[in-house]
Amino acid sequence: MVNIFKEMPHMTGLLIRQLRLKILLWLAGFAVIIVATVTAYPSVYPDEETRRGFAITMNNPAMEAMVGSSYNLQDFLSTTAALFAQETMLFTLVIAAVMNIMLVSRMTRGDEEEGRTEFIRSLPIGRLSYLGAAMLVITIVNILLAAIIGTGLWATDIDGTDWQSAYLYGSILGGVGVVFAAITAFLAQLAETARGTTILSFGVLAVAYLVRAFGDVSNDTLSLISPLGWGMRTNVFIQNDWWPVYSCVIAAFVLTAGAFYLHLVRDLDAGFISPKPGNEHASIFLKTPIGFTAHEQRVPIIVWAVFIVLFSTSFGYILDDLESYFADNPFLEKMMQGESDVTNQFVTLLMAMMSLISAVPAVISVMALKKEETANRIENFLSKAISRTRVMGNYLLLGVATSILMQALIALSLWGTSTAVLNQPLDAGDIFLAAFTYLAAIWVLLGLSILLIGLVPKITSIIWLYLIYGFIIIFLGDVLDLPDWFDSLSVFEIVPALSSEAFDTKPVILLLGISLVTSLVGFISYNKRDIQN
Amino acid sequence: MTVLQTKGIAKTFGTFQALDGIDMDVEPGEIYGFIGPNGAGKSTTIRILLGNMHGKYF
């Protein structure tokens, strides 16, 4: 009898050793953010009045679509913990999913693509040992996550928490986590590259989010297709339903079994979705340096463009529900000073959020320069008659073009959908101006990326930490009650938030100045430093 | 005693026939030379022997 899991404990140790720093950082980051947030809640919502206000801002279709829904007014009035869960649950579930996708994709296709798996598999070990070990490691990570978050919440002990609900909150994070771990492991068998695996998995996450958004607004059963929909249905801190956790575990088991089966029947390095062969000859465009750079990045740019159109259109579609919701409720309408104002506020918030998201593909485009250097490909490029300024300039130009494209897509999708669903559609000029104003912030990120690549290429990835910081400020900034300068550290908070705020040229010029100076320093130092190999 | 024995291993990648009927026997202590031009299927054979790829057996 052949043991297909032979030496799995050794493989598990090997993987943990490789990834211990990443795992530690993820778990520590999670713990710090959750505990810091939950600690702030009692002081932000001290009395019934503030909680009632919270319930009103939460209890409308737009917010249901964005952050999900599971409670009613009474729940918010009775416990502070329910407020915390309502506002943070979906956000943390998505981050848990992202953590699982990144780690599993690295342990499965990532290692296979780098050739590590082939070395390991040449030794007398079972065929499923490596994949089995990866699943074991990610399960341990999710159990740790559940335990750490649960203990943290229990120890913080805000109004409405007991040990069962605290650990349920932790467990559902871990539960949805293992589902996405299993989805990624499954997709890793289908795709042939680590990048393909990540793109497919994030695609599933985005669809899960949107399906839940539509389900929560219109049809509850629809939400139950999405793992994120399950995650939102624990009623944690009120009824404490455990069935979503069990469903997650069962789904993860089934998907993992599927991944194991596909892994057994396929060849190493092969996938079930094979990439199509390229053209035999390069086009004229591809032979130019900028064309080559653009060609290299086309897949991520297209994927992100589709993603952004999908999101903006969905939220634009919800504007209709928002309008009728407030029209039906004269009391609320009075309270929020007219429906158009609510639509306006929602669009402003949406624009800030979408701009942060569209900064990702723009930064990816510029960061590709660093990736090419790490992969030792950039030296082939630089050995030709082309200056470093030009090579770097091409990547920056591509990043700038990407950001303009993405912002235009956001504005176009939102505006286009609003003309279809609203009686009084959004003003095209306003919405495009709002979207393009955020370019100033995105370009600072591009400038910083250039600066990092030129000056300190070893730590370029901190640009992602900065972007994550921007997300934290936009989602949790008000709740965490940080000093103002914490907010202004994120460039996205400096941009005038149209159309709730008036347009102001000063911050925009400041941001453009920063992006110009950082890029300039980046270009100069990139020309001076050694290319790493 | 034979430590390794194969009979008629075949392998195709799509329509491309990479291996067709590989027979080999390796005895204990024997040094087995494995030579051939590029694309002859040396690595493919080894990958199948290691179980990293699935061949066809007759």
Automatic annotation (TrEMBL), chain A:
Assigned keywords, A-Z: Membrane, Transmembrane, Transmembrane helix
Keyword field contains Transmembrane helix: yes
Transmembrane regions: 21-41, 88-107, 128-154, 166-187, 199-215, 242-264, 301-319, 346-369, 395-415, 435-456, 463-480, 508-526
Keyword Membrane: yes
Stated name of the protein: ABC transporter permease
Pfam families named in the record: ABC2_membrane_5
Top-level taxon of origin: Bacteria
Automatic annotation (TrEMBL), chain B:
GO MF assignments: ATP binding; ATP hydrolysis activity
InterPro entries reported in the protein's UniProt record: ABC_transporter-like_ATP-bd, ABC_transporter_ATP-binding, P-loop_NTPase
Keywords: ATP-binding, Nucleotide-binding, Transport
Domain ABC transporter, chain residue ranges per copy: 19-54
Family annotation (SUPFAM superfamilies): P-loop containing nucleoside triphosphate hydrolases
Domain of life: Bacteria
Family affiliation: Belongs to the ABC transporter superfamily.
Name this polypeptide is given: ATP-binding cassette domain-containing protein
